[in-house]
Amino acid sequence: MPRSPNAPSPKAGPVTLAMVARRAGVSPQTVSNALNSPELLRSETLERVQRTIDEMGYRPHRAAQTLRTRSSKLIGYGIRPAPGNSAPVMDRFLHALSQAADEAGYRILLFASPPGNASLDGHEELIDLHSVDGFVLSGTDRGDPRQAWLTKRGIPFVGFGRMWSGRQIGDWADVDGASGTDAAVEHLVALGHRRIAFLGWPRGSGVGDDRAEGWQRAMRRHGLPVRGRRAQSVDDTASARAAVAPLLDTGATAVIAASDMLALGCYQALRERKAAPGKDVAVIGFDDSPTAALLSPGLSTVAQPLEAAGRECVRLLLARMSEPGAPPERVLLEPSLVVRDSTPAPGS
């Protein structure tokens, strides 16, 4: 990329704030305000300083900027072990989160965060050693100690996910799983299905119970029976294959699974019975993992709006940093049904 004719030569050394001030004909404090508090400057002054910064290729020193603003421009995010097939989904969320943070002038600082109280050690270390400005929490569930711990210490945070414990703490953005499975039932009913089963996780999982609730709500709205049509499994294909068998024995013509991993187990169970997924029994998953589109037949599934979730988490966290005493804000995002070949009409 060609160097600006107004930029100093490489031999001149790094461009300093004072050099920018001289070139723009303003004080060093005005340049500092342009970088850190642009709302304090008149529009024409701000434009002149920013143009000079661009022309000279000035980059503020991160450490010095931290001292001036008392901000590290770092957001902590704890990586937790992802169960089953959820790792690709969380990878997509992390990419969206990082991009949204970067656009806001922040960086995501990753650290290992095992489940349980031990995870608080990592948060405390980041606060002490790196002065992170706040945290994004994922994997929130009942009994999670992080929200209360951070609230007590006055550390800003936002959750990607609800707490599920009745008493909500702090800001969060989450995906409406119940709305997703409700839409899945509506799709199957429109195709003519009436014996629609649900293959979910063991009761007590906040996310899993939410997805089961949407299925149950839609079934009752249509006057369809739910008794004997729900099974539970941990998030692996072998367990799902065994758990779905009783549902198939009762004559289910369609199965909605709480994850794509469970739906894959349903595929395997059907093939063991010499039945074809999509042709003999319709199957819908959840998460729209990369595997879903590669299966044969392609798996219909509920897609989470992960890009929107990343943006909302950053927005909520920055708002909390700027207004610590504001009322908590909670955002529930709508998922979308991705229809593929695993959900044909009965007999088609």
From TrEMBL:
HTH lacI-type domain residues: 15-69
Organism (species): Streptomyces scopuliridis RB72
Native organism taxonomy: Bacteria, Bacillati, Actinomycetota, Actinomycetes, Kitasatosporales
One Pfam match: Peripla_BP_3
Database matches in PANTHER family: HTH-TYPE TRANSCRIPTIONAL REGULATOR GALS, LACI-RELATED TRANSCRIPTIONAL REPRESSOR
InterPro entries: HTH_LacI (IPR000843), LacI/GalR-like_sensor (IPR046335), Lambda_DNA-bd_dom_sf (IPR010982), Peripla_BP_I (IPR028082)
Keywords recorded for this protein, A-Z: DNA-binding, Transcription, Transcription regulation
Alphabetized GO MF terms: DNA-binding transcription factor activity; transcription cis-regulatory region binding
Protein name: Transcriptional regulator
Classification via PROSITE patterns: HTH_LACI_2
